[in-house]
Structures
1.
Amino acid sequence: MPETTPTLPAESDVVVEFRAVEKHFGTLHALRNINLSVKRGEVVVVLGPSGSGKSTLCRTINRLETIDSGEILVDGAPQPAEGRELFKFRTEVGMVFQSFNLFSNRTILDNITLAPRKILGQNKAVAEQRARELLDMVGIGAKASSFPAQLSGGQSQRAAIARALAMDPKVILFDEPTSALDPESTQDVLATMRQLAERGTTMLVVTHEMSFARSCADRIIFMADGAIVETADPETFFSAPESDRARSFLSSVH
């Protein structure tokens, strides 16, 4: 028989997968039977009223919140429990928070190059070149030598996005990234996020910004009371939501 060359399995197009995930905070049932997958290059926007479980869902992906039962896979692998493997895992899942979490005593350039140098082992010149490219991309290249206190809120959030991108993550999680910003800064940050979406960055975004959800999402996940109530493309969700809960939510935000 002729020799055959084994074929390697194709890279899965699913980056994040929730399987029957449950989460409680005491008596509060924060996540109820969550089944969800995020595909490579997809922008998934999570909408819902306050207290619906959106941020908890986001924070469970990189294990900032642990789950009670079920499973979360990233690139087909289960989350590590603790220790060095969990630390490495978190470098592959970028996170942009409501607060910017920049080191106040370091320049913006240092903030962005610190993790690539310390964790990925990049040399200083390579890390700084990449950081400057990212700062230019997010529109604050001139702020590389500034300290966080010298930046506006919108500039700080764009620096935080550049910091997440510097680790070349498999997915970037955005947990209400514009909630602490004024309207002008919000538009600057959303423009940066739109640019990432156009570049094919895999993103899961928790937001109250309906215009971003409508124009940039590949898929809308609507949550209420810890559960996914419906999933749809933006046009369908905004023009013809299936559930009374979604219709009520949309009427309250317009």
2.
Amino acid sequence: MKKPLIGLTPAHDTDNGDIKMRPTFLRALKEVGCIPVVMPLEASEEDLRQLVGELDGFLFTGGPDVHPFLFGEETHAHCGNVSAARDQMELSLLPLVMELGKPVLGVCRGIQVLNIALGGDIWQDVPSQVKREFPVAHQQPFDYHRPCHRVALVRGSLLERISGMETLEVNSMHHQAVRDLAPGLLASAYSPDHLIEALEMPGYPFFVGVQWHPEYLWEKQKEALRLFEAFAEACRK
């Protein structure tokens, strides 16, 4: 059986123009029988359309902030660095992927890109914009290979069915988060301070975004591995 080819959107070093990919993503995809393919940032729509036709699934990875103009806001004082090239490529890529119904997985920045691309928005800076009685550490102070808070899964969601759990222990390294969901998307997990931690699209073959980083957890946490397994299985169909 041919292994699924998975397109990954790369990180972009705006200082020197380099693109990068965390080996944690590559190892997780290899573990579930996939071949990772790092996408180019500088690609025409024609090139992206060809890649979408030939690859079997797409993983929108973590990275810097999305430019606020892309969801209709001014730049918040605590917004971080952005990559115009990456924003452009990912927002152009998603509609082409969805035209063909190819599986989609978003991680950290990825969940935010999925929501913005479909018409939703995000909190530009959770610590300063969201009032919370107990400020959960969304930028954890320790190793990413260990979880720092829990999320509650929405009953009946795809994520609950994949994990077989009602709650998950997750890691966290973000200062932005999904705020208003785009049309057609549903929240499937919440943090203890009521931030949306996962989303999905009912009726689509496979469309899941998570705010945490399962690529750091899968070796020790079976629920994180199950997410990659479910994504790989969808990409084989």
